[in-house]
Automatic annotation (TrEMBL):
Pfam families: IU_nuc_hydro. Residues 4-319 form the Inosine/uridine-preferring nucleoside hydrolase domain. GO terms for molecular function: hydrolase activity. It comes from [Mycobacterium] wendilense. It comes from the Bacteria. Keywords: Glycosidase, Hydrolase. This is Nucleoside hydrolase.
Length: 349
């Protein structure tokens, strides 16, 4: 059973990624880092603990991360994820406390407890992973796999014309992480798999797909549409579907305001699925670096595919579905997501 450590900035889609991990029987979720990003680190930490309690897993340790990026002030995204990070959903205060050690230490402890076995997943800014790498430079050799949701490759940004949110919030941290994985002399494991907007924006959740999830969870599905009053609350019988519908409605409304349609990109749950099963995708080795000085391009992920820099690849960029796949990647992903999370939520109700 793979040991998984998840670093989240929960966040509507991070919450769904967490549920996917919890719903996956093959996973031993050994810990969670709470990273500042979509909302403050304290709020992320509260959201993670509240979600775990709702899902019946309060024993999973949750650690609080740095309140600030490495060298710039924190920028948050309440416009995208709601005032507390979970859209319109309101969760009861968690009872479990965070760990006494911080999120960077949690990374190190998890990797040291499972040398060569740990699968790391980052769906937020890389602040705490960068701090962990500063404290323990052997981390790249200790991890079995690292999957990152971040960046944008041959594709536009979602925060500036060229930057993706997770990298934009802490570009220095992302640069340090990618650099650390380029210096893995004795590393024989996999290259970090990077799920950028180029792939995650193809994972489009619609109200119809959300309704399939509710049905799989054994609850009557809400019919959500852009004609509804803003902030209409879910009446679902299943409390977790209620949370998901209330969270997701805010996310749908955000994407709609942006002119993208009444839908939502499921960046983080997709990265979680890749972390558990890299055979789901095709990835291309590359040397990734982060632009830190450009006046228009700071935070941009630059990928050298052709070897111009003469540097070893430090990552593999996810570029599509499995080579032999006969169905679109999003379809394969959503079938798997609904099957797992639907059964899980049905059991919890
Ligand atoms: C990323 O930004 C966040 O708002 C989402 O949770 C996701 O991790 C997409 O750019
Ligand atoms: Ca996120």
């Amino acid at each position: 059973m793979p040991a998984v450590f998840a670093d989240l900035d929960t966040g509507v889609d991070d919450a769904m990624a967490l549920m996917y991990l919890l719903a996956s029987a093959e996973v031993d979720l050994v810990g969670i880092a709470s990273t500042a990003g979509n909302v403050s680190a304290h709020q992320v930490c509260r959201n993670n603990r509240a979600l775990l309690e709702l899902c019946g897993r309060p024993e999973i340790p949750v650690s609080l991360g740095s309140e600030q990026p490495l060298s710039i002030p924190l920028r948050t995204a309440e416009d995208t994820h709601g005032p507390a990070g979970l859209g319109y959903a309101e969760l009861a205060d968690p009872t479990a406390a965070p760990t006494a050690h911080d999120a960077a230490q949690a990374w190190i402890r998890a990797a040291r407890a499972h040398p060569g076995e740990l699968v790391g997943l980052v769906t937020g800014p890389m602040t705490n992973l960068a701090l962990a790498l500063r404290a323990d430079p052997e981390l790249p050799q200790l991890l079995r796999r690292l999957v990152i949701m971040g960046g944008s490759f041959d594709y536009r940004g979602n925060t500036s014309p060229v930057t993706e949110w997770n990298i934009h919030v802490d570009p220095e941290a992302a640069a340090e992480v990618f650099a650390a994985f380029g210096e893995r002399a004795e590393h024989t494991g996999e290259l970090p798999l990077v799920c950028g907007l180029n792939i995650t924006e193809s994972i489009v959740l619609t109200p119809q797909i959300l309704a399939r999830l509710a049905a799989a969870a054994g609850t009557e599905a809400a019919t959500m549409s852009p004609d509804d009053d803003l902030g209409t609350r879910s009446a679902a019988g299943n409390p977790l579907i209620r949370v998901l519908e209330d969270a997701m409605r805010f996310y749908f409304e955000f994407h709609h305001r942006q002119g993208e349609g009444y839908l939502a990109h499921l960046h983080d749950p997709f990265a979680a699925a890749v972390a558990l099963d890299p055979a789901l995708v095709t990835a291309r080795p590359a040397t990734i670096d982060v632009e830190l000085h450009g006046t228009l391009t700071r935070g941009m992920t630059v990928a050298d595919i052709a070897g111009h820099w003469g540097r070893e690849p430090n990552a593999a960029i996810v570029v599509g579905g499995a080579p032999q796949a006969t169905r679109p990647l999003a379809e394969v992903f959503f079938d798997r997501f609904i099957e797992r999370v639907g059964v899980f939520l049905r059991r919890l109700s």
